[in-house]
UniProtKB/TrEMBL annotation:
Pfam families: MAP65_ASE1 (PF03999)
Places the protein is found: Cytoplasm; Nucleus
Protein name: Microtubule-associated protein MAP65-1a
Biased composition (Polar residues): 514-536, 567-579
InterPro entries (alphabetical): MAP65_Ase1_PRC1
Lineage: Eukaryota, Viridiplantae, Streptophyta, Embryophyta, Tracheophyta
Keywords associated with the record: Coiled coil, Cytoplasm, Microtubule, Nucleus, Phosphoprotein
Source organism (scientific name): Hordeum vulgare subsp. vulgare (Domesticated barley)
Length: 579
């Protein structure tokens, strides 16, 4: 009590006052009763306050226990190392024991919540970028975190989801950059403005913006895909158009024999004539102005083509006639020239159609010439062999062939080769007849050689060969008879026979000499020429045919008295009449 004052001392003082005043016992009892009631009320209030305080502490303890359980559940922890095990003692003692644990768990909860907010914010950011609702780098609203589930398992789920989204974002960014690169390459080839094309899809695709800030939304990818497809289709169409123009340029150049210098001016157009779409990568290779330039040149050459139509057509006609001449096929060139001239002057046919028709005729003529080539090659070999046979006969009739004159050794070598060649003539003729008949049967036509049936020429050769065989037999018999008669009439002084003089021989018709010229000095020709002028393009029959026919028809000279056995020719080796 402050100042040593107590309830007893105060009551004594009150008694003294009452004694002095003279209060009655009844009044004194009333006052004392009031004092007791007032003291009781004070005690009662104090008890109530203490009870309320106790109840609050109990409630706080219960709440702490509930909070502890909730935190343990939210954090996914079954127990905490410092969780109070003591359940006895005063309420304050229990509260003091649980408070540090609650503080630790709340701190852990806040840290875990921040981790959830961070992960969920990144997830929402990437999802927004993919959906196109959030621009790259734009801050998203703080996500709502479920504080009743802050377990590590749930956090790992969010982190796994974030990793998948980050991977998808990386793939999308890579795809976007790939699309942008394709757009750049296509625009470069097509001569288009890359910046305006790509920013039309999305402004963030500009090269000046960092890669990690570019849009990766579904809409951006879809637009990029459509843009690439459109540009690729444009590239395909332009390349097709350019290749078509290049083909027309080549046709017109070939048609008009354009010089190399003129053609080289359009190398940038024709260089991709046979290229595929993926092979064309040069900048501006398919620009619109380049295609327009090629179109203008084609139009110019097409107009120029009409003025040179006659020259071109007759050039093609000459080519056609050369093919037929090389194949030894006779055509009416005069009529063809007149018909061609009439068509050009009438103007009833397009130049391209006329040239295409003539190209078709040239193609057919080449096919025909190709089908005749094998037979013509053998005809050429046959005629060459007949020339050698004619020369060999003249050589064998020459009495001075073994003299050591200049060039005699060369003639000897030629004679040996000629004998080998002549020995192959019968087999060559037989093969030629078989091939010619097969050719005629497969086509139902006669094989004409410079206007003469080849089989008729071969039949004539065989007939002349048979006639010559008969002539040779008669010559041998006559020679034998003359030798016997000379041996009988002329005997030497000692009874032996002397060598007969050279027998008389039949008159030799002109034929090729050993030096390659005929008796009258006219050299034989390797080619046939048809007698008479025929449409102004083919000449007369080759002199070779005439000289060969004369050589075959001639019975030939007998040999000299001492004729070497190697100089005799087989009875089947005859010179042909030139077809």
């Amino acid at each position: 009590m402050a100042g040593g004052i107590t309830c007893g001392s105060l009551l004594q003082k009150l008694q003294l006052v009452w004694d002095e005043v003279g209060e009655s016992d009844e009044d004194r009892d009333k006052v004392l009763y009031q004092l007791d009631q007032e003291c009781l009320d004070v005690y009662k209030r104090k008890v109530d306050q203490a009870t309320n305080s106790r109840d609050l502490l109990i409630q706080a303890l219960d709440d702490s226990k509930i909070e502890l359980a909730r935190l343990l559940s939210a954090l996914g922890e079954k127990a905490v190392a410092r969780t109070p095990e003591k359940t006895s003692g005063t309420i304050k003692q229990q509260l003091a024991a649980i408070a540090p644990t609650l503080e630790q768990l709340n701190k852990k909860k806040n840290e875990r919540k921040r981790e959830f907010v961070s992960v969920q914010s990144q997830i929402d950011q990437i999802c927004g970028e993919i959906a196109g609702t959030t621009e790259v780098g734009e801050q998203v609203a703080t996500p709502q975190v479920n504080e009743d589930d802050l377990t590590l398992e749930r956090l790992e789920d969010f982190r796994s989801q974030l990793q998948e989204l980050e991977k998808e974002k990386s793939n999308r960014l890579e795809k976007v950059l790939e699309y942008v690169s394709m757009v750049h390459d296509l625009c470069t080839v097509l001569g288009m403005d890359f910046l305006s094309t790509v920013t039309e899809v999305h402004p963030s695709l500009d090269d000046s913006i960092a890669d990690n800030c570019k849009s990766i939304s579904d809409d951006t990818l879809s637009k990029l895909d459509k843009t690439v497809a459109t540009l690729h289709e444009d590239k395909k169409l332009r390349l097709s158009k350019l290749q078509e123009l290049a083909g027309q340029l080549y046709d017109l150049w070939d048609l008009m024999d354009a010089p190399t210098q003129e053609r080289s001016m359009f190398d940038h157009v024709t260089c991709n004539r046979s290229a595929s779409v993926d092979e064309v990568t040069a900048p501006g290779a398919l620009a619109l102005d380049l295609i327009e330039q090629a179109e203008t040149e084609v139009q110019r050459l097409d107009q120029l083509k009409y003025s040179k139509m006659k020259e071109i057509a007759f050039k093609k006609q000459t080519e056609l006639e050369d093919i037929y001449a090389g194949a030894h096929t006779v055509i009416d060139t005069a009529a063809a020239h007149m018909k061609l001239l009439a068509l050009i002057e009438a103007g009833n046919i397009e130049p391209t159609e006329l040239i295409a028709d003539m190209e078709g005729q040239i193609g057919k003529a080449k096919e025909e010439a190709l089908s005749r080539k094998d037979i013509l090659d053998k005809v050429e070999k046959w005629m060459s062999a007949c020339e050698e046979e004619s020369w060999l006969e003249d050589y064998n009739r020459d009495d001075n062939r073994y003299n050591s004159s200049r060039g005699a050794h060369l003639n000897l070598k030629r004679a040996e080769k000629a004998r080998i060649l002549v020995s192959k003539i019968p087999a060559l003729v037989e093969t030629l007849v078989a091939k010619t008949r097969a050719w005629e049967e497969s086509r139902g036509l006669s094989f004409m050689y410079d206007g003469v049936p080849l089989l008729a020429m071969l039949d004539e050769y065989v007939m002349l060969r048979e006639e010559r065989e008969e002539d040779k037999k008669r010559m041998k018999e006559q020679k034998r008879y003359v030798e016997q008669k000379l041996n009988t009439d002329h005997e030497g002084p000692f009874g032996s026979r002397v060598s007969p003089n050279r027998p008389a021989t039949a008159k030799k018709l002109p034929g090729p000499k050993s030096n390659g010229t005929s008796m009258n000095g006219t050299p034989p020709s390797r080619r046939l020429s048809i007698s008479g002028q025929q449409n102004g393009r083919f000449g007369g029959k080759d002199s070779k045919r005439d000289s060969a026919t004369k050589a075959v028809s001639s019975p030939g000279n007998g040999a000299a008295a001492k004729e070497d056995a190697s100089s005799h020719i087989s009875g089947t080796d005859l010179a042909p009449t030139t077809p």
